[in-house]
Amino acid sequence: MAKACSTTSAKEVWRGRDNPILLRLDRTSAEGVTSPTPLSDVVKMTLKLTTGQSVTSERNVIPAEIDWWDTDLDTGEVKLTLGKWVEQENIKAGNYTGVLILYGPVTPNGVVWSEDKPNLFFKVLNT
């Protein structure tokens, strides 16, 4: 799989295309050691933009704009495929900020992913 990028740099989303964005969600221990976050208990994820638009994917439901269960992904990796979604939602070209919300058995109301900075940055581009 491609090298996962950080959650703090801007990600390019091409309207109507299947270009993937690969994120790695890390956690930092009390000792300051950074490691990938296991996502095996996550049952659903939502990406919510500050504009109010959001997309939700559930574990093992295909097609998925947000994928964290694929066997090609390493621990802590999340693949976003947002091009069709931004086209369907008529999200215009430009810069956007959003948050990733993870849901699981002990977090049924969701937890905003926050490793220092919770925001994800996107640049939507026309093809």
Overall shape: globular
CATH class term: Mainly Beta
Mind describing the biggest β-sheet? 6 strands, mixed
Radius of gyration: 14 Å
Mean pLDDT: 90
Q: Proportion of β residues?
A: 35-45%
CATH architecture: Sandwich
Helix content bin: under 10%
Q: What is the number of independent domains?
A: 1
Report how far apart the termini are. 25 Å
Here the CATH topology equals Immunoglobulin-like
Write down the secondary-structure element order: EEEEEEEEHEEE
- Secondary structural class: mainly beta
DSSP summary: helix tally: 1
Oligomer state of the chains in this structure: single chain
Could you explain the architecture of this structure?
The protein is mainly β. The protein has a single domain, classed as Immunoglobulin-like (Sandwich). Helices cover about 5% and strands about 45% of the residues. The strands form three sheets. Strands 1, 5, 6, 9, 10 and 11 form a six-stranded mixed sheet that branches. A three-stranded antiparallel sheet has the order 2-8-7, with no helix packed on it. A two-stranded antiparallel ribbon has the order 3-4. The radius of gyration is 14 Å and the shape is globular.
